[in-house]
Design a protein that fits this description.
The chain is α/β, with parallel strands linked by helices. Helices cover 29% and strands 21% of the residues. A seven-stranded mixed β-sheet has the order 11-13-12-14-15-16-17, with helices on both faces. A six-stranded mixed β-sheet has the order 1-2-7-6-5-3, covered by helices on one side. The chain starts with a helix and ends with a helix.
């Protein structure tokens, strides 16, 4: 592949005549793993030449076998600003093999996420793969500052909210939908994805989708955007089996709304009356309805919460949280609605009082009316739930009692704990529990059990 690139040769459109041991062979291209994409649009880089930082990914995930693992990168960059926020779709992992038939040499590019073995000389061999290199290469173009920008100026990045498919859609594989948290991007899942892809059973059964969004929006609003994104994605790629949703931090709060039937209960919890009885401008009412009225998504078959502040975080209520909240620029779409709602919302003693629209930090405060109202509504039955909680080992108190309280430094145990959960795992981690090896192992355990259910 290096020679082809250096000599500017292309076997993708017509055969090449190459010298080989005193003879000539016709080099042709056999198949295209991207199906809709032509290899002529890509350059190919040897996976071994792509550095994989252990601190970011853990161990490099490889599979020994036949073929040369490559990273395919788009020649004409199709990146836009939003594609810098998560692993872009202009790079992909493939494995190249050569098949010799008479005077022909056929170059074949295979997708190691779809193909496990190849047949050569009448025998079956494992297909070589490097699962880490494509992820590491795709992150080279990410901007670390954008996680903060999307928190503080969410309206400026509203068009970056989208579902990213990490591989071509396969209707026979269960979707894993990952949802990141506050002040984060989808790139935060790379350590877990890297480890999960090294498991042949998980690779065989699952495909990975990511939900990337500006985290400064109140999470009810981000959940409404996700619902629209899911409707569009599922219209194009209908599922044959229920998906598994994995949410970290505020992403867990968004995941909770996917498995909750609120009816008008959440609305009444905020305003003390039904939507019909609430006198608001029609535009405001329609916008608020999207963030306050939810139906359980039938395509969700299991949810894993990791360090999720389901009942809020004291940091959001404290001085640091209040200062951070003031730095978040209120989205234009929510500005008028927030003023309208603030005049009508009923507040009890001690609840967070605002004269503007809530942002993400506000909706994570334990004394937020939104947090209290949503926790008065049970999660819909019939969906298995799993909880993973980080604990820095600074105390064993699991309640809201006197310090020290068990937690990860950001989210206390009492906020993440769900009595009805099918399993709960406490790992020795700070708030980045989704990147801890014990958490990743627990997710793998759950996925194995789900696949065999």
């Amino acid at each position: 592949m290096g020679v082809l690139k250096r000599e500017k040769l292309s076997p993708w459109e017509s055969a090449l005549l190459l010298p080989s041991g005193g003879e000539f062979r016709h080099l042709t291209y056999l198949t295209d793993p991207r199906k809709a994409k032509s290899p002529a649009e890509y350059d190919f880089i040897a996976s071994d030449s792509v550095p994989v930082k252990t601190k970011r990914f853990g161990e490099r995930s490889r599979k020994e076998g036949i073929g040369a693992p490559l990273v395919a990168t788009a020649r004409k960059s199709i990146r836009k600003r939003n594609e810098e926020l998560a692993p872009p779709q202009d790079s992909y992992g493939v494995t190249a093999i050569l098949r010799f038939r008479g005077d022909a040499a056929e170059l074949e590019l295979l997708d190691p996420l779809e193909t496990e073995t190849v047949r050569m000389g009448g025998r079956e061999f494992p297909l070589a793969a490097d699962f880490s290199a494509p992820l590491a290469y795709s992150l080279r173009g990410t901007r670390a500052t954008l996680d903060q920008a999307r928190l503080l100026r969410p309206d400026d990045y509203a068009d970056t909210a989208r579902i990213i498919r990490m591989q071509p859609y396969d209707p026979d594989k269960t979707v894993l939908l990952f949802i990141h948290g506050l002040k984060d991007t989808a790139a935060t899942w790379m350590p877990m994805i890297n480890r999960l892809r090294s498991d042949p059973a998980i690779l065989r059964k699952y495909q990975i989708w990511l939900y990337s969004y500006p985290s400064g929006f109140p999470y009810g609003y981000s959940a409404s955007v996700l619902r629209r994104q899911l409707d569009e994605a599922l219209a194009e790629a209908p599922l044959r089996r229920p998906m598994v949703v994995i949410g970290h931090s505020m992403g867990g709060c968004i995941a909770r709304l996917l498995v909750t039937d609120t009816g008008d209960k959440l609305w009444k919890g905020i305003f003390g009356r039904t939507p019909q009885e609430t006198r608001l401008p029609e535009r405001t009412k329609r916008l608020l309805s999207n963030s306050l009225v939810f139906k359980k998504r039938p395509e969700v078959g299991r949810v894993i919460f990791i360090a999720a502040p389901l009942r809020g975080s004291e940091l959001a209520r404290g001085l640091v949280g209040r200062i951070g909240s003031m730095l978040v620029r209120t989205p234009r779409a929510l500005l008028r609605a927030g003023v309208d709602a603030a005049h009508l919302a009923t507040l009890q003693f001690g609840e967070l009082k605002l004269r503007r629209a809530q942002n993400a930090i506000d909706t994570l405060a334990p004394n937020s009316r939104y947090v209290r109202a949503i926790n008065a509504i049970p999660i819909a039955s019939g969906v298995p739930l799993h909880v993973i909680v980080g604990d820095r080992g600074l105390g064993g108190n699991k309640t809201q009692g006197p310090d020290p309280v068990m937690g990860d430094g950001v989210v206390p145990y009492w906020s993440s704990h769900l009595p009805q959960a099918d399993s709960e795992k406490i790992v020795p981690s700070d708030h980045s529990a989704h990147q801890h090896p014990q958490s990743i192992a627990e997710v793998a355990r759950i996925l194995h059990a789900h696949a065999n259910h």
